[in-house]
Write a structure and sequence with these properties.
This protein has about 425 residues and is of the alpha/beta class. The chain has eleven helices and 18 strands. Strands 1, 2, 8, 9, 10, 11, 17 and 18 form an eight-stranded mixed beta sheet that branches. Helix 3 packs across helix 4. Bound molecules: flavin-adenine dinucleotide (FAD). The site of flavin-adenine dinucleotide (FAD) has 42 residues, from helix 1, helix 2, strand 12, strand 16 and helix 10.
Length: about 425
């Protein structure tokens, strides 16, 4: 088994870090993932000078490591959202989730990105009868309030959707899509470069401070390649947000998520496991998510360890996920696992995305495992905002809570307790 990200074996990332960091730019962006590159592409095509800085390489973060599920909806259910924000704002949030998938589709077409984007739909499967019983109500609210149709799959029909008998039924959304995320992020980077953005890999930003440059109000970025003054800054560092932006770091909980990929499966086995090639996830808090890759591997992910990826958490997760996969699909008992890797999710304390300004810097974070489409979308919306163009950002201005009692300095000491709490919730609810 390779402790390596399968997707990276399917792609050549663009390169071309210029020799010297320019002294000035209209916009500096921290992070070369979906958020940062989508923003860079949109800004550069409107003539702004854009510098993207990443401590690692293009797509190194969650953007190349994820399940490639381009999903409708948010992490929280619509009823929770409506209670918290009211139906009108919830409608805008739901509409943004649908628009975000259209935007990914549009960018893929416009920039001719070869990334296996396909509107294959997603399937949520119920781990308990009580979970299945809530689906009817969700489908009804989503149809009535958002004019969007989902389909309930009773247990007796589930075999048309998935080759597993352990679930109590399911819910399908045909609008969701699948993508090869590494090829998609590579394509976004290539598009941003073609439009004139510069991308500096291996360039760590150590601090971002308000300053002035020859009397003009600017932001000063101290980086491992020198100093850069920018009119505007966008922080697009997601689960890898660091002490370079301490105010934001304190609002983000970095949570590990891990994935295994099997050997290539025979066509007949792949067809039995997932006859419609859906993006699948289950109804637990400590959930599993899984899908076939275009070359017929079963890619199976979950929050096997709550801590972010290290050699140790990746190795332990491989066995936990293999056991989980066999519970779902006993057919895979003898399938070899070829790859295992991990990545870091960004959860905010309210499990919501947040995009707007904090201390004079733009940010878009808090995707909570729903970031492929939403990061693309919010990057583009913030770019429009910076350019003074019309934008639609339903997350701007919603309360952005920090840790209760301020008991968090960016080191998530409470993760073992959170992990145990969610396991307990899955047991009792
Ligand atoms: C294992 C896993 C599975 C997932 N599956 C799905 C899925 O199937 N569907 C879905 O919708 N979402 C999924 N997600 C979430 C999704 O991948 C993320 O929400 C999305 O990729 C976030 O993109 P981003 O551009 O904001 O951040 P990232 O892609 O994480 O990029 C952040 C970048 O910031 C850089 N950086 C950090 N600090 C600095 C600094 N000081 N200076 C310079 N650079 C810095 C890092 O090097 C990194 O490259 C998954 C995430 C993980 C980890």
């Amino acid at each position: 088994m390779n402790e390596r990200n399968y997707w990276l074996d399917t792609v050549t990332m663009p390169s071309g870090t210029p020799d010297e960091l320019p002294p000035r730019a209209d916009v500096a962006i921290l992070g070369a993932g979906f958020t940062g590159l989508s923003a860079a592409r949109a800004l550069a095509r409107h003539g702004a000078s854009v510098v993207v800085l990443d401590s690692n390489s293009i797509g190194w973060g969650a953007s190349s490591r994820n399940g490639g599920m381009v999903l409708t909806g948010l992490k929280l259910g619509v009823e929770t959202l409506a209670q918290r924000y009211g139906m009108e704002l919830t409608r805008r949030m739901y509409a943004a989730s649908l628009a975000s998938i259209d935007l990914v589709e549009q960018i893929v077409a416009e920039e001719q990105i070869d990334c296996d984007f396909s509107r294959c739909g997603h399937l949520e499967v119920a781990c308990k009868q009580a979970h299945f019983d809530t689906y009817a109500r969700s489908v009804e609210v989503i149809a009535r309030e958002f004019n969007h149709r989902l389909q309930i799959i009773p247990r007796k029909d589930l075999r048309n959707e998935i080759g597993s008998d352990i679930y109590y039924g399911g819910m399908v959304d045909q609008v969701s899509a699948g993508v090869n995320p590494a090829r998609y992020v590579a394509g976004l980077a290539a598009a941003a470069l073609r439009r004139g953005a510069s991308i500096f890999e291996q360039t760590r930003v150590a601090s971002v401070e308000p300053d002035s440059d020859h009397g003009d109000k600017r932001v000063r970025l101290s980086t491992s390649r020198g100093t850069l003054f920018a009119r505007e800054v966008l922080i697009a560092t997601s689960g890898y947000t660091s002490a370079a932006t301490p105010a934001l770091q304190k609002k983000i909980i970095p949570i590990g998520s891990f994935i295994i990929a099997t050997e290539r499966l025979p066509d007949a086995v792949a067809r039995e496991l997932s006859p419609r090639h859906r993006m699948i996830y289950d109804s637990k808090h400590y959930l599993y998510y899984y899908r076939l890759t275009p070359d017929n591997r079963m890619l199976f992910g979950g929050r096997a360890a709550f801590f972010p990826e290290t050699g140790d958490t990746v190795r332990k997760s491989a066995e936990i996920l293999r056991r989980g996969m066999i519970e779902v699909y006993p057919q895979l008992r003898d399938a070899a696992v070829d790859y295992v890797w991990g990545g870091t999710l960004d959860f905010c304390f309210d499990t919501m995305p947040h995009a707007g300004q904090l201390n004079g810097m733009y940010h878009a974070v808090g995707y909570a495992g729903h970031g492929v489409a939403m990061a693309t979308y919010l990057g583009a919306q913030l770019a429009a905002q910076i350019l003074g163009q019309p934008s639609e950002n339903p997350y701007e201005g919603i309360p952005f809570p920090g840790a209760p009692l301020g008991l968090y300095n960016g080191r998530p000491w409470f993760l073992p307790f959170a992990g145990a709490y969610y396991k307990l919730l899955d047991w009792i609810s």
